[in-house]
Structure formats: C-alpha cells, structure tokens
# Entry
Amino acid sequence: MNLRRAIGREKRIEGEELNITPVMNIFLILVPFLLLTAVFVKISILEFSLPGSDGGGSPEGSAIVTVLTISNDGFELKSKDLKFPPISKRGDEYDFATLVDKLIEVKQAHQTTEDIIIAPQAETKYDTIIKVMDRCRESGFPNISISG
# Structure
C-alpha cells in the first residue's frame, strides 16, 4: 500500500521544460575533440588488370610474360628471349636507374607488350613496391600485376 501512496504523491508540473544544457555541454566538448583527433587520409587509386588470354597483343599469338622479382638483394628481371643479370642494391638503396634501363630494353624488344608481373618477397616494404610500380609505368608497362 505504501508504494501506491508514493506513486500518487508524485506531482507533475505540466509547464516544466526539459533541461538540455548538460547534453549540449557534452557535445560542445566532444565535437572539437573528435575533429582534432580525426585522421585525414589521402586515398589514391591504382588500376590493376591481369594479362589477358588474347595473347597480350603480340603478333605471335603467345603472351609475353615479363616478371620482376624484388628481393632483399635487389631486382631480378625475366622476359621472353631476354636474360638479365640480377640488379644488386647500391649500399642499402635499390638501383632504380638500372631497373628503368632494363625495363626500357624489354619494352624495345617487345613493343606490343604492356603487362608486367611484380613478385615481391614478404619482407619487401610497400614503399619499395610503389616505387617499382611507378618505374614500370614510366617505362611503358601500364598493366601491372602483383604476384605473392
């Protein structure tokens, strides 16, 4: 019975408004905090395409596969009818200038091919892979595939 009396004693005031000041204060603090801690990332899109089975545009009708292996020691470039010695590092840096020269040689030998497969080792840094991809595009190989 006491519960019923306590519920009945509650007086409701009809003209009283809801106090939203504390909620607004929380938002006033949270919004600038979230804006300051937000990470703004520049996203770049790279278009990848796999070599087609149509022969890669070569007149012989067979696809010319060019494979570029990235290892801790340097680069190794393999292509049809061309053999290159491994491109060693210069100190701790990869030799991108020699790589570009060899890629241009491959492009001159097989002018119709636009496909290259990059095979990095698991320890290869992403920055190195991106630099290699840029050099491949500059040398005339816009269709880049990555093999794991």
